Amino acid sequence: MPKNSNSGYSYTGSGTNSQGNHYCSRDYGSSGTGYHYSNQGGSYYYSNPNGSTYYNNGSGYSQYTSPSGDVYKSYGSSK
User: Is the Cα dihedral 72, 70, 4, 14 positive or negative?
Assistant: First the structure.
C-alpha cells in the first residue's frame, strides 16, 4: 500500500464494513504500528505506535490518553 511521505507511515490495510464504518492500519517502521477507525455516526478513534490513543464521539466529547496513561477529556460543543 502507498506510503504517506508527509507522516512517515505506510498503509497496511483498510476497509469499510456493511454499516459504512471505516478502519485503516498503519506501519510506522521501527516506531511500531497504529490504526484508526471512523464510524458513520461521526465518531473516530486513533491508536498510535507510542501507546497513546485519541477518541472523538463526533458530538463534542473527546478523550486523549497519553503513552504514560494520563487521560485528558474535553466536553466542548460540536458545531
Answer: negative
